[in-house]
Amino acid sequence: xxxxxxxxxxxxxxxxxxxxxxxxxxxxxxxxxxxxxxxxxxxxxxxxxxxxxxxxxxxxxxxxxxxxxxxxxxxxxxxxxxxxxxxxxxxxxxxxxxxxxxxxxxxxxxxxxxxxxxxxxxxxxxxxxxxxxxxxxxxxxxxxxxxxxxxxxxxxxxxxxxxxxxxxxxxxxxxxxxxxxxxxxxxxxxxxxxxxxxxxxxxxxxxxxxxxxxxxxxxxxxxxxxxxxxxxxxxxxxxxxxxxxxxxxxxxxxxxxxxxxxxxxxxxxxxxxxxxxxxxxxxxxxxxxxxxxxxxxxxxxxxxxxxxxxxxxxxxxxxxxxxxxxxxxxxxxxxxxxxxxxxxxxxxxxxxxxxxxxxxxxxxxxxxxxxxxxxx
Length: 376
Ligand SMILES: [Zn+2]
Known about the structure:
Layout: H1 2-26, H2 40-49, E1 65-71, H3 79-95, E2 98-105, H4 108-117, E3 121-125, H5 133-143, E4 147-151, H6 153-160, E5 164-166, E6 174-176, H7 185-197, E7 201-204, H8 221-225, H9 231-244, E8 250-252, H10 260-269, E9 273-276, H11 291-303, E10 308-309, E11 314-315, H12 326-345, H13 351-365
Parallel strand pairs: 1-2, 1-11, 2-3, 3-4, 4-7, 7-8, 8-9, 9-10
Antiparallel strand pairs: 5-6
Helix pairs in contact: 3-4, 3-12, 5-7
Bound molecules: zinc ion.
Zinc ion binds near residues 69, 71 and 313.
């Protein structure tokens, strides 16, 4: 009789456990919860829990950010006006909590001015035909440059249009423009000096990605259709430099126009490879990152937290600089900075990851003093 009772009990118990398991397995995963700021737990317990629940929603946050990708005025203007425009740019950026930036300068006078302000990292924006190591050392010594900026678009268009160029600049030798110039002996020894001086190269390398109005991108397919190679070939040249100079840090502007799977592979292969967040990591005011998108992108940022630098591509270049209104400038810079900050903030990164992307990686790579961020 007793045995019978125990057996029935075991069967009922097993049935109950089975049904609970089944119900649980059918329940959806709980929705994503953003992490809280680092002090929520302390607030909950201090003074016997006096402030428990106060600001329960407060998330990781950086009060001050650094921008690894900005431009001084790109065209020709008297120096006084160029300086004024640069100051306006940095003032408006400050309103958006960007406390310092890498300022790409095409001219020596711009480098001198940015250096004299003592706030930003002066970066020499070298022309593709100017691998001048004497100039590099001089700018490093005189203007404390923190990096070199390169841009392949004029090379790609020059090759497409079958142009010739004086290479190296000042040599009086005219050569056909070709992307292979970027791995010429002249450039390779230039990169060697960059490595020696601890200067990263921030580089707009590839650029074929089709029309992209969301991030203000134009269409360059015509040029690419006329070239005898593709993006992979150009990337191969960059990989050659990464391999030759393992101590040279290369920052791919605009993520090299690559998606997550390829960047994953490249980051794993090259510890000296970095990206900035401009162009690709953009989210306009009206848009929100979906849970599915966050599930893909957030782990990528966490995995490569040391290799991603906030960058906006903000620039002091707007129409008719003599007459432009302050509203126009504000609108221009807001559109170039805010959507990139917004993208990162919507990832709800853990505080250490957010701090790295927002300013710490910039400080390390560009050898800058830490941002005045008293929170962390
Ligand atoms: Zn740029």
